[in-house]
Amino acid sequence: FSNAAAALSADEQADYGIIQNQIGLALLELDRIQAYRHNPTLYVELIGNALFTPYVLEYAPEPERARHVIARLEKVPAFLETAKANLVSSPGIWTSVAAEENEGNLGLIEKTLREWIPAEQRDRYHRAAEPALAALRGFQAYLKNDLARRDSYDWRLAPELYNEKFRYVLATDLTPEQVLAAAERDLDAVRARMAELARPQPVEAALNRIAARHAAPETYMPDARRDLAEAREFVRRHDIVTLPPRDNLQVIETPEFMRGIYAVGGFSSAPALEPHLGAFYWITPIPPGWSRERIESKLREYNFYKLKLLTIHEAMPGHYVQLEYANGLEPVARRVLRSIFGNGPYIEGWAQYATQVLLDEGYLNRAPELRLTFQKEELRVLANAILDIRLHTKGMTDDEAMDLMLRRTYQEKEEAAAKLRRAKLSSCQLPTYLVGWRDWIRVRDHYRQAKAGGFEMREFHDRALRQGAVPLPLLARLLTGKPLEPAPQPGP
User: Is residue 33 part of a domain?
Assistant: First the structure.
């Protein structure tokens, strides 16, 4: 088939490469990693998304969407029986997070959906909800009293599986060892730049002063909305990228069943086949039962400046703008392919790269506090890659991970604890920020060189985003017809 593939157009070759890569990843997951036998969060989150989507996306009249919710509720008991039959063992961290998220599903059915269902459908909803709730409560007991005892499975992927998954997920010419070496080298360089910027204060003192300016729990969400409006206006005024025509972005609380992995916030795009529907910038509220110390730790980490960076990353012009462009890709089959199998380094790298572009263009009047906060974020991106690779392949301990985050990258305790938990819940996702960020810069430089003096930033961004989330080496070829030079290797 390789001879036939050579005759395809550039776009068709890109699609073919994506399909081949995803087949390899799917077989690796199904045959060797087998998360369906060990990770109960897969089942909990699938139920939550299946029920939440008809509630939050107005793709049909409300009564029709309510019927879809009811039909899905009716399937919950059988689905959970299948989950219990599949699950053979699970690390404690996966089981406990599944139980936390499952509480969110119970609340969604008992309160949110029950209040939303039209009056004429409430009897049928009640008949479907009661068995579903009973099954979910039974699954909760199963998680705590049965699966929790079968905790022999190691959440660490180990080198062989990790290296293979890394190759498929990142679609990069770099190995985990090369990414790790580069991240650990760059960590010292960024710390040195921070020390220079913070002078005459120590970095810790400067960051403490920055962290002290933060929202209250009740103003956290309104502040994010304010920051979104500010970022949108800056992007428009400075011609960073042509803004999407749709006005479908909403800022909402992160759904409870997703807060295990989205402890801070996240983004959910409009569906690829119905791009006119809502897109959601999630902000995870501070739980009411938290101690004053935990609340203060989170608010200090997501302070006045850091919340602005989060909003740029998740929404404007980060994930929202990128995914709106992806939802305009034609033909539709290509749009669906590149949406479902969107390349992680392209997606997360764009959000990091776009944040850097805004700062380079003078966002917030080039405030040194924002620049220092962004350099701290760069440390976090480097730490993400180091954590993922070292935890999964080199036996890094919890204490070593916390030391890296608290001491070497200046993170608050609550942020560091949440990141460590996230690193145990996933694999090969945390390095996508670093690899993608660096590769977006490489692609831009490659494109600038190809334009031979005719480079224009907005035109580059518009063209790159119109391709959808393809692996970045493929993006370079699609934009210029020429291959991207191999990534520079870290020195000794």
Answer: no
Q: Give the span between the Cα atoms of 382 and 368, in whole angstroms.
A: 21
Q: Examine the domain organization and report whether 316 and 282 are in the same domain.
A: yes
Phi, psi for 283 (deg, rounded to 5): -120, 125
Helix (H, G, I), strand (E, B) or coil at 253: strand
Do 175 and 88 sit in the same domain of this protein? no
d(CA 436, CA 108): 35
User: Strand 265-268 to strand 249-253: parallel, antiparallel, or no bridges (unpaired)?
Assistant: unpaired
Range of the domain at 187: 162-433
The pLDDT confidence band at residue 323, using thresholds 50, 70 and 90, is very high
pTM of the model: 0.93
The pLDDT of 152-174, averaged and rounded, is: 95
Asked if 71 and 53 count as a contact pair (C-beta separation under 8 A), the reply is no
What pLDDT does 258 receive? 83
121 and 180 both lie in a single domain: no
Angle subtended at Cα 349 by Cα 177 and Cα 373, rounded to the nearest 5 degrees:
95
305 burial via Cβ count (<10 Å: 0-12, 13-18, 19+) = buried
Q: Angle between the 159-170 and 368-393 helix axes, to the nearest 10 degrees?
A: 130
- Each residue of 371-387: b (16+ CB within 10 Å) or e? bbbbbbbbbbbbbbbbb
Number of Cβ within a 10 Å radius of residue 307: 23
φ and ψ at residue 267, rounded to 5 degrees: -140, 140
Contact 321, 243 (CB under 8 A): yes
- How far apart (Å, rounded) are the C-alpha atoms in residues 333 and 354? 27
Q: What DSSP element (H or E) covers 249?
A: strand 249-253
Q: Pick from 433, 458, 483: which residue ends a domain?
A: 433
**Phi-psi bin for 34: left (phi > 0), alpha (psi -120 to 50), beta?**
left
Phi, psi angle pair for 281, to nearest 5°: -90, 110
SS3 (DSSP) at 284 = coil
Closest CA to 283 of 316, 254, 304, 312: 254
**Same domain as 251, residue 126:** no
Q: Is residue 234 part of a domain?
A: yes
- Domain assignment present for residue 279? The answer is yes
| The predicted structure's pLDDT at residue 185 | 96
CB 458, CB 371: distance < 8 Å? no
393, part of any domain:
yes
The SS3 assignment for 291 reads: coil
Q: Are residues 329 and 210 in the same domain?
A: yes
Identify whether the C-beta of residue 465 lies closer than 8 Å to the C-beta of residue 481. no
Beta bridge partners of 249: 279
Residues 382 and 284 in one domain: yes
Q: Does 95 share its domain with 229?
A: no
